[in-house]
Amino acid sequence: MTMMFEVRRYSQQDSLLWNRFVEKARNATFLFHRDYMDYHADRFNDYSLMFFKQGKLYALLPAHLKETTLYSHFGLTYGGLIMGMDVTIVDTCQLFDALNDFLVKQGITKVVYRPVPWIYHLHPSEEDLYAIFWRCHATLSLRNIGTTIFLQQQPKWRKDHLRRLKKAKEAGVTVVADADIREFWNILEQNLQQRFQAKPVHSLQEMLLLKERFPMEIVQYNAYREGRIIGGLTLYLSKQVVHGQYSATNDEGKEYGAMEAIYDRLVNDDFSDMMYLDFGSSTEQQCSVINEGLIAHKEGYGGRGVCYDTYEWVL
Length: 315
What we know:
Low-confidence stretches: none
Helix content: 25-40%
Number of strands: 16
């Protein structure tokens, strides 16, 4: 059978073509823009792939290579096949056949695949999940859980959140949109160190660089009391999802409802017309242990579970 797809490795001269496709794709976010992906190019051996049908770009696979394993892409929260509106299930099955043939010829022995979660799909886009099961015999190797609110359903907040929101209002807590990330970063670093002995995935310098590259998609919200910053939330915005990338408060922020004040502003004012608010995951130890306090905090706003899955197959 002749393959209908040409598989080609991405190179830097393809960046314009790649980015234009990402902008029109039905299941992409700005994380797949090369200006985002390439900020940490030194940490990953990029092996992103482009699929052409009859000479026209049909789909993308953001990926990197480590030894003989192809990962889709572990420098990002999710990866998977990026599809245009005209992608069909029959084509997708043939595309994965072509992918596997291509990888075998390159001496690659295994694929680890993280699809884009469905809340980020502008149009149903799970053709890849069908194809990797039947054509690649993929198995589910890891399952993470995120917490998401359907904003249009306006879920009720738990009583402790409502109580803290009232306290924030009484204490004159103010929320500033597009605030200074630098002010917030110190609180974030201290918070992660104290609670998890961890550091943010991004350094402050990286975050400032990304903010400069994506001023409309990366937005900082800070909460203040009597002129002092008491908490903040770094948002990643896509077409229908508000995603909380980083959130933290100091002791005063916990006491006076900094996060409640920020979420009240997001949910009821600034993003009330959006579809989803994604709080991200609340797991540890390779997703196997739930941080019960953290997830309960998110569920207290009405958030419920969306899975972030990882699949793998041997070639």
